[in-house]
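Running this now, will post back.
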Amino acid sequence: MSKLAFESLSQQAVVGAGVLYFLAFLAQLAGRRVAQPAADGPSVLANLGVTMLPMAALVHLGALVTRGLAAEPVRVPWGNMYEFTLTATFAVVATYLATMRRWSLRWMAPWVTGFAIVVLMADSLWLYEGVTPLRDALQSPWLVIHVVAAIIATGAFVLGGMASGLYLLKERWPDRFTKVPTLEVLDQLAYRMHAFGFPVWTFAALITGPIWAHQAWGSAWNWDPKEVWAFVTWVGYAAYLHARATAGWKGSRAAVVALVALATLIFNFVGINFFFGSGSMHSYAQGLVEHLVLRSPV
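Update: finished.
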């Protein structure tokens, strides 16, 4: 197959994954509304919705693989904002699927699926870029090590942030979130996800990142905006885990700290790439205004 054919196939796979995620989401919502005796377990629709989720994830993975094959030379599929967002969304879904049975997280399926739909839609509408070769600074084996670790940590942090957000919502409106587990379960889930993601993020941001920076730019620390905010994100999650372990911060206070840390992670990903533009050595895109102008049909 030609490179253009692989690129077209990747776009079609993204659309296919989006359709499957949407159908799974509808089945999951419908399954939650069907009255079903507790002894009979989840409804058929709920089971269908959960079963379709790994199918959608598999098509999603196919979009990533064919995106990498579309490049000349063949490369990993995270050379720009579009590709990284596509990969990070897959990481969230994959992390959920890997922990769903172990931690009894079937109830979380609509939230994860809804997240995947929204992000894929935004990614396709506003962030899409054609396949291009990697820039010189990205031509390194550390790209795989550093970015894979960051993506895995991001998947765990997003799921932990979902649990923290649901904790606050259920605490405020308990009658509206009856399908969500108890506050204790949500608090423990958030802690588990963050406790898993933190050492992986440490490896990505404080170990492999400086090593790669020294190799690419001659210095392990350059006060680049993304470097600074990666460290701010690390401090935020370190504060969450420290406060929870030593000061006994649980429940709503811990959830707020976790969401603040998640906000720094999102800004590190979106804000730096757009608002700082070429001012960051890590930037994958133009500044926000320039990017929107270039994407405008006018």
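The chain has nine helices and no strands. More later if anyone needs it.
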